[in-house]
Amino acid sequence: MFNKIALAASAAVLFSGTAMAADAIVYNEPAPVAVANTFSWEGAYAGVNAGYGFGKMKEDGVSVKPRGFVGGVQAGYNWQFDQIVAGIEADFQGTSMKKSVTFYDETGAYEGDVKAKIQWFGTVRGRLGADIAERTMLYGTAGLAYGKVKIEGNDVDFGRDSASKTRAGWTAGAGIEHAFTDNVTLKTEYLYTDLGKVKFRDEADVSKVKTNFHTVRVGVNYKF
User: Fold this and answer.
1) Residue range(s) defining the domain that contains residue 62
2) What pLDDT, in 10s, does the model give residues 3-49?
3) Would you say residue 179 lies in a domain?
4) Burial 103-137 (b: 16+ CB within 10 A, else e)
């Protein structure tokens, strides 16, 4: 009888120890802690940009295609509403966009030449975008454009002449921007700009030169 009681007690102690040991090695993974995206596009910023421009200046079937470097500065302000970002931006660009065309008659004799140049341009645009990834925004943009266009020409009958005009028009495009830090962002942007018909008057005639161009540029902004 006593042996049975002792055996039962030993079994109970052994079972209890085994259960405690099993409990001791159970490891519960901690619940993952969600890390909120604390970056916000909201606020003022300013920066610089550089890129390439190419376009067309056309009048009475004569087309000149200026192209070259563009570079300038920009500044703006963003407002953020959850994943949506709305803002306004202004920029001013200097350019080396120019092109010359020489004309010859049927016999190959020189008739004249035309040089077209987009000296500078600027824009004031709205921007509307959305976060597509951590610290990365895709946006569209459109607004007012203005610029100075210069035409130089030489004609065997009328001689050499030149004129420049400042003209307003419109622009639209899109871009992508990524924040590398809370203050420094990098963007790549495309714009189509149309300055409409720029009127030039010389001794021989009045010319209306339709002017439009494309720009692709990379910019760096500092967010205040």
Assistant:
1) 45-223
2) 444 444 444 444 444 444 444 455 566 665 544 558 999 999 999 99
3) yes
4) eeeeeeeeebebbbbbebbbbebebebebeeeeeb
Q: How many structural domains comprise the chain?
A: 1
H/E stretch holding 213 reads: strand 206-223
Does residue 129 belong to any structural domain of this protein? yes
- pTM for the model: 0.78
| Alpha-carbon gap, residue 190 to 200, rounded angstroms | 29
CA distance 41 to 33: 24
Among residues 152, 212, 142, 141, which one has the least CA distance to residue 177?
141
CB 43 within 8 A of CB 77: yes
**How many alpha carbons lie under 13 Å from residue 170 in its C-beta half-sphere?**
6
DSSP letter assigned to residue 202 = -
Cα 14 to the chain's mean position, in Å?
73
Q: Which residue type does 119 have? A: Q
Is residue 1 a part of any domain in this protein? no
Distance CA 68, CA 63 (A): 17
10: tokens are: 């030993």
Specify whether the CB–CB gap between 195 and 33 falls below 8 A.
Answer: no
**Contact (CB, 8 A) for 74 and 68:** no
Q: Report yes or no on 62 lying in a domain.
A: yes
CATH of residue 81's domain is 2.40.160.20
